[in-house]
Design brief:
Mean pLDDT: 84
Radius of gyration: 19 Å
Structural class: alpha+beta
Order of helices and strands: HEEEEEEEEEEEEEH
CATH topology: Jelly Rolls
Low-confidence stretches: 202-222
Number of helices: 2
Shape: globular
Oligomer: single chain
Length: 222
């Protein structure tokens, strides 16, 4: 399984065009064909890639990819893949964003999470996924995998879900990436998300603990 993951990750990194320091991109690799879509290819750089009919290797795929950093500095990369049919080979769909920075919190470690949840999966089909972060800010960079694994985890049931969490000290800027594979003979739709959440400073944690204790005292008095 590790070699399969490395193949998909390497294909994404080598076949994609060089990205700027702050960019969103999706790479499809299927049956000897590669399609690369970047934010701005439609004339608008808006942090969203939305494609309703990506033609790759004789089949079409629906995809939406977004990135965001919220008011608290939490960074998130998301992807939705719909109606992907890997009829005659494994299909690799990878998403990356370079230029996350507000989520960097050195010397404290950020809380990282990766989730992959299928909404449709053909009988006997399998999908796999992994999330990564990279302190060199490289597109599709694998400075580390969320959860510390060696490659994809796999789902063979529509009720399954991949959930990973770990911590890492992130530089400013850093990149986040999502790597997914739809194995040969599988039709699937799924969501995947990788998040870097900024930990509260020690003072903030103490304040929350104090407020929580005050709330408990009030409930006891009530």
């Amino acid at each position: 399984m590790k070699n399969t993951f490395l193949k998909g990750a390497a294909a994404a990194a080598l076949l994609a065009a060089p990205l700027s320091a702050d960019a969103l991109e999706v790479t499809f690799d299927y049956n000897g064909s590669t399609v690369v879509i970047a934010d701005g290819d439609d004339g608008f750089v808006d942090g969203v890639i939305s494609a309703t009919n990506v033609m790759i290797g004789g089949t079409s795929v629906l995809l939406t990819a977004t990135f965001a950093t919220d008011a608290n500095g939490n960074s998130q990369l998301t992807a939705f893949v719909g109606d992907a049919v890997a009829a005659i080979a494994d299909m690799f769909i990878n998403v990356t964003h370079t230029g996350f920075g507000d989520g960097a919190s050195a010397p404290s470690a950020s809380a990282l999470s990766f989730n992959m949840d299928p909404s449709a999966l053909s009988s006997g089909g399998t999908i796999g996924g992994a999330g990564s972060y990279d302190n060199t800010n490289a597109a599709y960079g694998i400075g580390g995998l969320v959860g510390g694994g060696a490659g994809y985890d796999f789902i063979s049931d529509v009720t399954g879900e991949i959930v990973h969490a770990s911590g890492a000290v992130l530089d400013d800027p850093f990149s986040l990436s999502i790597f997914t594979v739809i194995t040969q003979g599988t039709t699937a739709s799924y969501d995947a998300t990788v998040t870097a959440a900024v930990p509260l400073p020690a003072a903030g944690l103490m304040l929350l603990a104090g407020l929580g204790g005050l709330g408990a005292m009030r409930r006891r008095k009530g």
